[in-house]
UniProtKB/TrEMBL annotation:
Name assigned to this protein: tRNA(Ile)-lysidine synthase
GO molecular function annotation: ATP binding; tRNA(Ile)-lysidine synthase activity
PANTHER family per record: TRNA(ILE)-LYSIDINE SYNTHASE-RELATED (PTHR43033:SF1)
Any one Pfam family match given in the protein's UniProt record, by short name: ATP_bind_3
CC per GO annotation: cytoplasm
One of the GO biological process terms: tRNA modification
Compartment annotation: Cytoplasm
Domain tRNA(Ile)-lysidine/2-thiocytidine synthase N-terminal span(s) in chain numbering: 30-209
Gene: tilS
Amino acid sequence: MTIVLDPAVAAVRLAVRESLAPREGSGSVVLVALPGGPDSLALAAAAAHEGPKLGLRVASATIDHGLQQGSAEVAARAVEAAREVGIADARVVRVEVGTEGGPEAAAREARYAALSRLAVGVDAAAVLLGHTLDDQAETVLLALARGAGAGSLQGMAPRRVDELGTAWIRPLLGIRREQTRAFCAASGLEAWTDPHNAETRFARVRARERVLPVLETELGPGIAEALARTAEQLREDNEAFADMIDETIEDIVEHAEAGIAVSAAALAANPAAIRNRIIRHVAQSEFGVSLTRTQTLEIARLATDWRGQGPIDLPVFEATRQGGMIVMRAR
């Protein structure tokens, strides 16, 4: 008797299988971040099915931020769901959420820090995150609305390896949200619905519920896929730029007292895209500062439009022209 696999189940399982095939590190565990919604639940079920075939043990972690009433019960249900799909090592991690950067950013920071610690503790080769193509489209759309640069417009990376050697993987970036819901329905899985996903005080919810549907109606279908493709193309460009910038910096940058110095002539000779990226890279790597475009262009003018202007005061450091060098020095 031939068993016909539901198309959504097949698509999600394939995405997970392909994402797990390139193995980083020596760990034999994959850790699924499992809030309990349809995206993460479909991811967990697919990982539980595919992981053992690749010699991987699958674990899950549900982060309880304690920000909503009944969060402990929601977390307990997620653990139960994980065990139902075959994940024996399912646990809840309670975190304390600060206030810096707003509630969403603070919760995200606490969540990722907890997952990172747990990944090290269980010797996980990878952490799997349940972001979908729809999440990617919303991320790119919000970045466009802010006037962000290419770094933000590239959206969420499908895979990155942190300094501890753990791979952070988003297998579902090519999967639509409706497919994860169909996966859960076909598999008889009851997913949790996060009430925050309906609160229009959040920009992401407004983009999801109001803006993207209007774009689809007025401009035609396929907007989400187009935004996701834009992210992928920009990621490729940024990776190429990053390699070029690393090579260029070795030739034109030198250490200075309490800071770093960049050849003004070399900066001016480079195309604006590379010149500005070099400036932003130096500011971020040396001083931990993310420059705005206006700040970046002001520093660039020390190379391209030098008229004897004085030092440029910036957060943490100042930039000034000294002879043929632009010196960035901590204040």
